[in-house]
Write a structure and sequence with these properties.
Length: about 500
């Protein structure tokens, strides 16, 4: 395994901790996936890209990662405190479809968008509805331990009883006394002993669409239950990393900790990681504010807040330009800057593959060699420091300066020596493609078309037909390309 001092910020301890995995290096990574009742939006993109990058980097370091990302297709209710309609069932009624049709429709669209963002598929992608027996067994275990109670066919987790021997609120920093004081009385809450108790299993009304037989009657599982049941099944009672958006820290992940401790008498997760939110022009994203933008709207530009369409790789690059724990503010200016930055890296990726080491053109330059070695070290240090992609990208641009200088002939490859030249190229390609997951977006037959236009450009320039030269330049610029007219060659690049 590659030797790296990897540190993760652990939400539970609120500090960076040295990451340690068992030997052989196996990592269990569980990430809360979407509730599939609508199209994927910016809020879905950030955790997907964040933990895809975590998975990519751990894999690059030779860890064997089992990445599990769940699909919530039952139990996530519209209202507060375990009341209201199931989100998928409500959507099914509106569209006059079966709930599983809704779940499948939006699961498929989510997968389509994740593929466009070039995220790796999880090793396992379990669904809540496919693990009802495991969830029922988990409720039975919690009841047996004395941390739950049954009322009218529903089962609730007894938070007060749990807190006598455990610390409910330790992940989010919430104080139980304050939670009890601040809890408002809601309709249907008279079943609970305390307002902070949460449902493990809910009794289903006759009109409820999604329901199953259980020892307590016909009902459906609570939202928090599914992740505990599925993570423990596929990763064990205790696993390495649990990820998700910070909006899930309370109550969802707090409840997972309680459920895991209640039946297994140990914390279920070693390292909790939470990505921060995306705001839009400084405001929280929400349908009521008119700033709710789906990924498909971003990709095709079909939203009143968008000045243009933004490609999937522009979105991916945009998300990676901020540390995952920082707030990321969306705006057209920010995305246009991201578009330029992405194209610079992809231009570098393209030309780096054209560069060949040419020995004997110049003497080795120890200062240049030391600079490259330090930049590479800095890029890895950034990723080792809690996956700081923002800093890593900055170091990649320093490598890109060396690549561009060799491409234009200002710097000879021989100054680095063959070993460091290869290390420079390999590191840049590995970071851009394998770790950050950025790929070149090009249309069918793009290279053939561009090469033909460059041939016509060269012929016009040789014939001193400068009107034609200007026409070709202008035409290429209009569709996002620029001619690179250098001393000894003519090439193209994406317009930045």
């Amino acid at each position: 395994m590659k030797s790296h001092n990897l540190k993760l910020y652990n939400t539970l301890s609120r500090k960076k901790e040295n990451f340690e995995a068992i030997n052989p290096p196996f990592v269990g990574l569980y990430v809360c996936g979407p509730t599939v009742y609508g199209d994927a939006h910016l809020g879905h993109a950030r955790p997907a890209i964040t933990f895809d990058t975590v998975n990519r980097y751990l894999t690059h370091l030779d860890y064997r990662v089992r990445y599990v990302r769940n699909i919530t297709d039952v139990g996530h209710l519209q209202g507060d405190a375990d009341e209201g309609e199931d989100k998928i069932a409500k959507k099914a009624k509106l569209e006059q479809l079966e709930p599983m049709e809704i779940a499948q429709q939006y699961t498929d669209s989510y997968h389509r968008d994740m593929a466009l963002l070039n995220t790796w598929k999880p090793n396992i992608e379990p669904r809540a509805t496919g693990h009802i027996p495991e969830q029922i067994a988990l409720v039975e275990a919690i009841l047996k331990e004395g941390f739950a109670y049954v009322v009218n066919g529903s089962v609730y987790f007894d938070v007060m009883k749990y807190n006598e021997t455990n610390d409910y609120g330790k992940l989010s920093g919430r104080d139980l006394e304050n939670l009890l004081t601040g809890s408002r009385t809601l309709d249907g809450q008279e079943e609970k002993r305390n307002a902070v108790d949460f449902s493990l299993w809910k009794n289903a009304s006759p009109e409820h669409l999604m329901k199953w037989e259980s020892p307590w009657g016909v009902g459906f599982p609570g939202w928090h239950l599914e992740c505990t049941a599925m993570s423990s099944k596929y990763l064990g009672k205790t696993f390495d990393i649990h990820g998700g958006g910070m909006d899930l820290m309370f109550p969802h992940h707090e409840c997972e900790i309680a459920q895991g401790n209640a039946c297994n008498h140990q914390d279920p997760v070693k390292y909790w990681m939470h990505n921060n939110m995306i705001t839009i022009n400084g405001q929280k994203m929400g349908k009521s504010l008119g700033n709710f933008i789906t990924l498909q709207e971003l990709f095709n530009g079909d939203h009143k807040l968008l000045d243009q369409a933004y490609s999937p790789m522009t979105i991916r690059y945009f998300i990676l330009t901020a540390h995952y724990r920082s707030t990321l503010d969306f705006s057209n200016d920010a995305l246009q800057a991201a578009q330029k930055g992405y194209k610079k890296l992809i231009n570098g990726l393209r030309i780096s593959k054209l560069l060949k080491y040419e020995a004997g053109e110049a003497e080795k330059d120890e200062e240049q060699i030391a600079q490259v070695e330090q930049i590479i070290t800095n890029a890895y240090r950034a990723m080792d420091d809690d996956f700081n992609t923002a800093q890593a990208i900055g170091h990649l641009f320093n490598l890109l300066k060396k690549i561009n200088s060799m491409y234009t002939g200002q710097l000879k490859s021989a100054v680095f020596g063959e070993e460091i030249f290869k290390k420079l190229i390999d590191t840049f390609n590995t970071f851009v493609s394998d770790i950050l997951g950025l790929i070149e977006e090009k249309s069918d037959h793009q290279n053939e078309m561009l090469n033909l236009l460059l041939q016509l450009y060269t012929e016009a320039k040789t014939a001193r037909d400068y009107t034609k030269v200007d026409e070709i330049r202008a035409g290429l610029k209009e569709i996002g390309f620029v001619v690179k007219d250098m001393k000894d060659k003519i090439d193209w690049a994406y317009e930045e």
